[in-house]
Amino acid sequence: MAKDKEAYMSALQGKNIPILTLDNKWHQLFTQTEMTPEISNLADELNALVERDGKLRSETKDLKKVKKKLLGEIVPLRDEANKAGDSSAIEKKIEDRTRLINDCNERIESYDDELRDLSKKIYEADYELMIETMKVCYERLHDNTEYITELDKWVSDFRVQLKKNIVLMQQAEMENYNLYSYMHQIFGPEVIEIFDMKYDPDRRHPIRRPLAGNDKDYTS
């Protein structure tokens, strides 16, 4: 398995791998082959990382909006403080907003660090999932190819035997036809009926059918 994994990794080197669990075509693969427990676990792990990544990006976006709003409020407050005689209350508002902006900056920085780490983890999890997917699909392809080869041989052998049997069947039917025709001409229908012969040339003879009528119609 280690050797196979190295081969798969070499084949994937430098390739732009999509996030598999977000790709509908990847899910369609498992309408053709079974999803193994290992693939299922890797997919769950990848989904959890992607979900966390999405949550952090959304929260970062919201924090930046809050920060922008707070920054926009500080400028008019500063102008108001410069004009006011007693600006202590206004300065308190400015300090509160400055503190909130610093909180936003710290959280954004923390999220950025985690997002960088998540990006690496997502790539690694996706890579492992891709390798395991390739392994399972390759094994299924290999097994199917062997099965197809066996079936193809069986079909080829059957066709040969079928052709032989068709020839043998035609020969036997021709023999029956000729026997019945000659006996019908020699002994007549009454004698044949006495022996209760079951052969019915009108019902069962795909090669030659005797014409209805006189004995002379039954010719070889």
Proportion of residues in β-strands: under 5%
What Rg do the Cα atoms give? 43 Å
Q: Which stretches are low in confidence, meaning pLDDT under 50 for 5 or more residues running?
A: 207-220
Q: Give the CA-based shape.
A: rod-shaped
Distance separating the two termini: 71 Å
Report the total helices: 4
Fraction of residues in H or I helices: over 70%
The SSE order reads HHHH
What profile does the largest beta sheet have? none
Instruction: Kindly give the count of domains.
Output: 2
Structural class: mainly alpha
Strand runs, count: 0
For the residues shown, what is the average pLDDT? 84
Oligomer state of the chains in this structure: single chain
Comma- or semicolon-separated keywords:
78% helix, disordered C terminus, 4 helices, 2 domains, rod-shaped, mainly alpha, 220 residues
Please outline the helices and strands.
Layout: H1 2-12, H2 24-29, H3 37-83, H4 88-194
TL;DR of this structure?
With 220 residues, this protein is an all-alpha fold. The protein has helices spanning 2-12, 24-29, 37-83, 88-194.
Structural features, described:
The protein is mostly helical and 220 residues long. 78% of the residues lie in helices and 0% in strands. It has four helices and no strands. Helix 1 packs across helix 4 and helix 3 runs antiparallel to helix 4. The two termini are 71 Å apart. The C terminus is likely disordered.
